[in-house]
Structures are given as C-alpha cells and as structure tokens.
Amino acid sequence: MRLSRLPLLALVAVAFVATPAAAQLTETEQAMATSVEAGFEQDVALLERIVVQNSGTHNHDGVRKVAHMLAPEFEALGFKVEWIDQSAAGRAGHLFARHEGKPGTTKMLLIAHMDTVFEPVSGFEGFVREGDIAIGPGVGDDKGGIVVILAALRAMKAAGTLADANIVVALTGDEEEAGNPVDLARADLVKAAEWADVALDFEGLSRMDGRDMGVIARRSANNWALRVTAASGHSSGIFSEGVSYGAIYELARILDRFRQELPEENLTFNVGVAAGGTPAEISDDGLSVSAVGKTNIIPSEAVARGDLRTISIEQTDRIAAAMQAIVDDNLPGTDATIEFAFRYPPMPPTEGNRALFDKLNAVSIDMGLGEMGIYPPAGRGAGDINFVAHLVDGIAGLGPGGTRSHAPGETINLLTLTLQAQRAAVLMSRLAAEPATRD
C-alpha cells in the first residue's frame, strides 16, 4: 500500500489546535523541528545506503563497512570518532563518536547498533520504498535508529544547541549476539555509562492502542542447559523397585514443574530444544540436539536448552534458585544438572528511569503529540541498554516505528524517522541545558 506523506509540522499544528492547554515549543525547538523535516529525504537516502550493505552480526566486514559510512556523518557534526576493534571477542567492533560540550552539563550516552540478525545467507537483502514505508534487513532494528540519532544531532547543530551538549554515541557491532566474553564485548559501553548522567537507547518505537509508548524497563535474556542421566535397563522393569524411571521421564518432570510452579509477572522461560535416548547430547554451539533409542530400553540421557527472561537481578537469582531446587528433586534412579548462562542483564523500572521518561513525555506534549504511556516490559526483548542499566538512568524505544522486526520483510514507517528525531532533538537540547548529576 502506498501512503501519502503529511508533513509532521502540519500534524503538530493540528495537535496544538486540538489541545490548547499544551505548552508550545520554544522558537529554537521549533527551528529544530523544521530542520528535521527539511532533512527527510537526506535521512532516507542515508538509511538506504546502510541497509543495502549487509551487516549481520557475523559478517564482520559488513559491519565495518557500515561503520565507515557512518563515521564521516558524525565527523561533519564535530564529533571525534573511534573504531573499537572487537576481534578478541569474536566480533567486528564498535563505532563510538564523542562530542565535548559545556562543562558541568548533562552527559548523554546515545545507544544504537549497526549489526542485524540477517546474515548474508539469509536471502533477505536490499531496500524497497513504497511511499512512506520501506522494507529491508535491519531497516528498523536498528539502522533506522542510527538515522534518528544523526537527524536529531544535525537539527541541534543547526539550531545551536549541540555546541553545549556532552554526548557519546555508542554504535555496537554485535547487539544481536554479544561477543565472548561479554565483559570484554561491553567494556567500552560500560565505561561510557560510568561517565554519563543519562542513557538514551534508539531501538524501535513501541506503540499500544494507537499511542506512542516510552520504555523504562527491559527484561534480561539468559540461557539454561539441562542434562539428565539415568540407569538404563530393560523397559519391562520401569517403575519397579530399584529400577530407574529413565532420563526422559525425569526431564519431563522437571520441565512440567517449571511450567506449573514458576510463572509470575514479567517472567518467561522457554524450552527451545530437547531430546532423550541412549545416548542424547547437545551440540557444542547449543543450537541442536541428537539422540537414539529403542522402545524396550530405559533411556539413559536427556537434554534440553531454553531461555530465562526476568525484570530484575532479584527475580533472576530467585527463579534460578527455584529451578535448581526442582532439578535436584530427582525421580528414582536419575540425576540432573542445570547450567545457566547469564548474558543480558535486566533493565528494571527505576524511579530514575521514570523521571527521565517524564521529560520525554513533556517533550511529546509540548510538540502537540499527546501524552505517552509506559510500555509493558514483557513486550520488549533485551538490548544493549541492559548492560548499563545498573549504572545510569535510561529510557529506550527512541528509534523509529515499523513491523516484522527480526523477520524477512522487516519494515519501517519513514515518517517516524522525522517524528522521533524531532522528539530526540528537543529532549537532548533540554537535557544539555541541565546540570550534570555526576562529577
């Protein structure tokens, strides 16, 4: 379907008429809104260039090429650009851009990522524009978010508000699958967060019931692997005194007790793959399982692998302990172990995050776009902001809106590039005028 593009400033004007109680933007803020609108086609052209270049997480050369395209864009705005090699973590690297402004004012960390889930073998490539909808790999997640950042910064520079702004832009090259060890892969992001007063994450805009939503919390993304062993034997003796129940029944007991006993708010735990037999094993990469067995043999091994998503460290620790207790309550003749891989920590909904959201919401109201809501954390996956949530107040969802993220046919509503860049430019300009909260 081809959509017509109504200038966003016209939309803002209509909203002001409909909501006379809303405070209007200052003259400088209006100038930024106008500047973003004027740069629309330039922004779309940049988006097309970086989308056409495949940058799947494991396509290291592709990630570097996207970084090379983006570096001059930041340098033209007066940023000092640094390429941070991540070959030691098995990844391409990160692009950081730094702008030194007025001392003693709010220090901002802007987060986005250059990589996508679409490797060259995916078959999903190119950039197709149909009016104000565009289709392409990573067009919204998260190359559109990068364009939002640049559009907002250009508008700030044109209006004179960038000069005083203290900003670090962190564009990671492995957000979709962080390198190993994670501490190395995220060391520079963590260091930037220790410097910053606020973190602004430019992944996609969330909407609910036709309303733009802010994101003040994102859940963790962790993995677990379950291994069960049992004494084998003739199947005719199963359930008898002194005879093993077998590994598959023990695996089923554990997983079903997870299902029945663990569920609570903001918690999910998926079983991604499972197998049992004599023997059964998980592949080294954890992506497949194999097993053989006969119906008249009690199975000696069973394996399963899944994820665990939580809203806080407290919930993570408590649920992991509950899972361990279930695993340890073995059926006769069986034993089981569970191993956890804690990868992406949670971003809990703190008061500091809520206060930062309130500032974003004020911008939205002043633009005549209406009051934003807070998006339920269970509706979002983990992201790079999770790694710094324990260090700095933050909000996410400042990128553009679209559909089919992580799926062939991923789309972006190009109008939201402008909308979100306007919001971000005003928010960052206001933050840049506030005193720093850290020395």
From TrEMBL:
This is M20/M25/M40 family metallo-hydrolase. Keywords: Hydrolase, Metal-binding, Signal. Residues 216-333 form the Peptidase M20 dimerisation domain. The lineage of its organism: Bacteria, Pseudomonadati, Pseudomonadota, Alphaproteobacteria, Sphingomonadales. It comes from Altererythrobacter litoralis. Pfam families: M20_dimer, Peptidase_M20. The keyword Protein transport does not apply. The keyword Chaperone does not apply. Residues 1-23 form the signal peptide.
